[in-house]
């Protein structure tokens, strides 16, 4: 400058001044560009931080989306459990249905067998009832015949005794009369007296006949008719019983009492047997009716249960479709979250973080080597992005922007002078 003239010095100073202004403007422009870049980086950092916080909150379930995601996962697990339970119930009901169908095939056959048994029992009961009625009729007839015979024998015995008593009285009177006439008739009347004495010792019927044959004194026609009736009845009894002795006939009628008791015992046994058979018949009828109505009721209940289970299976299928839709929505949301995290991770891939726990790289031979991170490990990727952003902010905090700008200006100024 000292060797130069004033005009040249002024021109040189003007040139330097212009050059310095240009450098100043350039530096200001660079400062503005750097500030814009810093603001962009800060805005990106805030966005990434918010995204990471959102992802952490979503993963932890503290925000709305995280709660929704947890609810969707819980609903998905519940839907899977209900689906497996519905499948198990469906298999169980299918087994029940197959068993009921098998029973339905043999139900009519079993019902026919029961009907045949009931009909056979009813026919047997009717036969036993007829036998019982016949036995009662035979018993009644035998009792009636026995009472009639007993009354007839008793009446005949009383009448015979009365007739014998009358005959004895007549014979005694006649004997007295014959004793009185002995003195008058003498020996002529003796044979007739002997004949009368023999008739008293003989059979009562023979005495009556002899008295009638001799025109017996004191016997009326009514008594003769009674005697004839008694003789006829006695003859009929002999023919019926096949006995001729009066004692045997009496024993025969006494034995009829034992027969009556045996018949009464048989009647009681038959009544008990008929009573038991009636109970069995009523029980079989009741069992038949119960089986008939219970079979219809059971079939209706089975059909109702089948319809109910089909409705439940349809409802479970609809619920399964809804759960599958919810799962698909949750999967889409997870895919979107994963895509966002992958985008942030790719944006920060130019940064490297020193080795630390839960980071993606480690130091080997003094160089940083990145580990292979699984793309499905979203929380780990979020942690790595967070660590990168923290180091980026720390590195930016250590930089003095004004000092860096001054250094840049000086470098540009020296570079320009050197070129000139």
Automatic annotation (TrEMBL):
Residues 173-186 have a biased composition (Basic and acidic residues). Residues 67-349 form the ODAD1 central coiled coil region domain. The keyword Zinc-finger does not apply. Residues 173-199 are annotated as: Disordered. One of its GO terms (cellular component) is ciliary rootlet. The keyword Coiled coil applies. Residues 24-159, 253-326 form a coiled coil. InterPro entries: ODAD1_CC (IPR049258), ODAD3 (IPR033192). One of its GO terms (biological process) is cilium movement. Keywords: Coiled coil. This is Coiled-coil domain-containing protein isoform 1. The lineage of its organism: Eukaryota, Metazoa, Spiralia, Lophotrochozoa, Platyhelminthes.
């Amino acid at each position: 400058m000292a060797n130069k003239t004033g005009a040249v010095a002024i021109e040189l100073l003007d040139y330097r001044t212009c050059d310095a202004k240009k450098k100043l403007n350039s530096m200001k422009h660079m400062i503005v560009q750097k500030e814009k870049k810093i603001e962009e980086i800060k805005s990106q950092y805030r966005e990434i931080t918010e995204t990471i916080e959102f992802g952490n909150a979503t993963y932890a379930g503290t925000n709305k989306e995280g709660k929704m995601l947890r609810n969707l996962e819980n609903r998905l697990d519940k839907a899977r459990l209900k689906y497996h339970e519905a499948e198990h119930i469906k298999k169980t009901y299918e087994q029940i249905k197959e068993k009921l169908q098998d029973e339905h095939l043999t139900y009519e056959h079993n019902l026919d067998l029961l009907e045949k048994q009931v009909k056979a029992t009813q026919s047997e009961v009717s036969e036993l009832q007829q036998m019982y009625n016949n036995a009662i009729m035979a018993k009644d007839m035998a009792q009636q015949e026995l009472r009639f015979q007993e009354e007839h024998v008793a009446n005949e015995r009383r009448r015979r005794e009365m007739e014998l008593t009358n005959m004895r009285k007549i014979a005694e009177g006649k004997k007295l009369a014959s004793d009185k006439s002995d003195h008058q008739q003498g020996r002529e009347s003796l044979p007739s007296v002997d004949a009368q004495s023999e008739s008293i010792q003989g059979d009562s019927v023979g005495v009556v006949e002899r008295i009638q044959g001799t025109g017996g004194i004191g016997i009326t026609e009514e008594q003769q008719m009674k005697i004839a009736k008694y003789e006829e009845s006695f003859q009929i009894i002999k023919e019926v019983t096949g006995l001729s002795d009066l004692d045997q006939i009496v024993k025969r009628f006494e034995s009829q009492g034992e027969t009556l008791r045996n018949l009464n015992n048989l009647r009681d046994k038959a009544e008990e047997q008929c009573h038991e058979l009636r109970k069995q018949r009523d029980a079989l009828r009741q069992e038949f009716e119960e089986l008939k109505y219970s079979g219809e009721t059971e079939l209706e209940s089975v059909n109702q249960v089948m319809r109910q289970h089909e409705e439940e299976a349809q409802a479970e299928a609809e619920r399964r479709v809804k759960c599958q839709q919810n799962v698909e929505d949750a999967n889409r949301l997870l895919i979107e979250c994963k895509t966002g995290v992958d985008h942030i991770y790719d944006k920060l891939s130019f940064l490297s973080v020193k080795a630390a726990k839960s980071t993606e790289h480690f130091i080997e031979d003094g160089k940083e080597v990145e580990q292979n991170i699984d793309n499905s490990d979203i929380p780990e990727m979020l942690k790595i992005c967070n660590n990168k952003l923290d180091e980026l902010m720390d590195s930016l905090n250590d930089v003095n922007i004004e000092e860096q700008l001054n250094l840049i200006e000086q470098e540009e100024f020296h570079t320009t002078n050197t070129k000139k």
